[in-house]
Design a protein that fits this description.
The protein has 314 residues and is an alpha+beta fold. It is 18% helix and 37% strand.
Amino acid sequence: MNTNGTNLLAGSVVRTSDQTLWYSCGDWQLSGISDAYPCIPAYILESLFPVDTKINKRIVAFNKSYVKIFGHYGLPLNTHRDVLYTSMEDIIYPISLGRMVFVKKSHILEAKDPKQYRARLLRELEDAEEIYNSLVNLLGVSINDLGISGSVLAIGTPSWRHETDFSIYGRSACGKVFSLIEENRNSGIFSKESIPPYHMPFKYMGKWFDPHFSDVARERFLHGAKIKVLCTLKNMVFNIEDDSNGLFYPSVYIVNDGQKLVSFRSSHRGLYRQGQRVHFTSLSKAEITFFSGEVETVFLVINDEWGEILEKRT
């Protein structure tokens, strides 16, 4: 396996011995896990796809036909847990934080690096260098802060997809880029509308882009921690008091009286804003024991719960 260094960047595409393709969520582990990476399954071989489930999207990678199981095209979470993950017991640990699981390093055949692939895409894809250089200049960051992720990285052939995923690395760059994307939506330079049901993508120079944000130090805040689910809560309303860590995965929002809302649902990234009120019909209450020994009780999204935005607080 080549992970291009000691750390696996979030947004890397991992291929395991069963030929599943995964999106990496960084380089950290919970307590008791020392030989795995946190990943979300992205594509599985079409031959392994549950026959009673509708296929929404296919790709060809490594000369094989794959079916997308991530995001809007994904399988229900209970299918992940009851069907996919039970068939992967040799490859992953029996711990699921939403769709995210810990993939054993011993079963990883390959890891594609988003920053390395960026150089190839800019070199080989027509107009890519011009468009991406224009984009990063507008967003006030360096091209070196950016990596190419998502399906184009999984396929491995530079092309313009229906939208192209890119990752921004580093807290400072992430904050700047997110703010400028919103600013340029309002000014009309980027599309004001996204691609339903997603809120992140934007259109620029005729191409759709889906940004992702990564900060290694922030991603490792759970490294070595233990998570214990205490109970399920019903009909909870939260005031979003701080959204500065909502960009990353898992998303962390400061809510009522300084408590944390920690979400492993990827569609919660960058969704909520300071001043909003959000309603969950259900979610978990959990205790996190950090590596330092500090214990904190948090609200936790690990079962695809959705938080409905009620209105902006006055």
